[in-house]
Amino acid sequence: MKFMVIVKADANTEAGVMPSEQLLTEMGKFNESLVKAGALLAGEGLHPSSKGARIRYDGTQRTVIDGPFAETKELVAGFWLIQVKSKDEAIEWLKRAPFGDGAEVEIRQVFSPEDFGPALTPELKANEERLRAQAAAQQQQQ
């Protein structure tokens, strides 16, 4: 099972305050343990929302809204993509993450092809697999 772990933003991440050397060291150790367990698929921190944009869709109209965005508690500061056997295992992993007071993460399961049932026809599934393989090949070329 794949899970996205969403690291919630706070006033510091939105202000562009970089983590301390100590936190980076602790996070590196945590990430290394995920890698050694074969659980880590990806993980990154994100720039503050002031450097981002949103696109609002209304029929055929597209409206671009530049950051920063209000409601810091609703924003994302980073993420992990992990593969583990269950939500309980994901929770146990994240209980060990080196976050301090007030930090919050959200754990959400990633859909697998089987979750879509008959709506994901064999043709659509084959196309999705082809696109994933193509994207992986392009990443290896870079």
Automatic annotation (TrEMBL):
Every YCII-related domain range: 1-111
Domain of life: Bacteria
Transmembrane feature ranges: none
Alphabetical list of InterPro entries matching this protein: Dimeric_a/b-barrel (IPR011008), YCII (IPR005545)
Pfam families the UniProt entry points to: YCII
Gene3D superfamilies: Dimeric alpha+beta barrel (3.30.70.1060)
Entry similarity comment: Belongs to the YciI family.
Record's protein name: YciI family protein
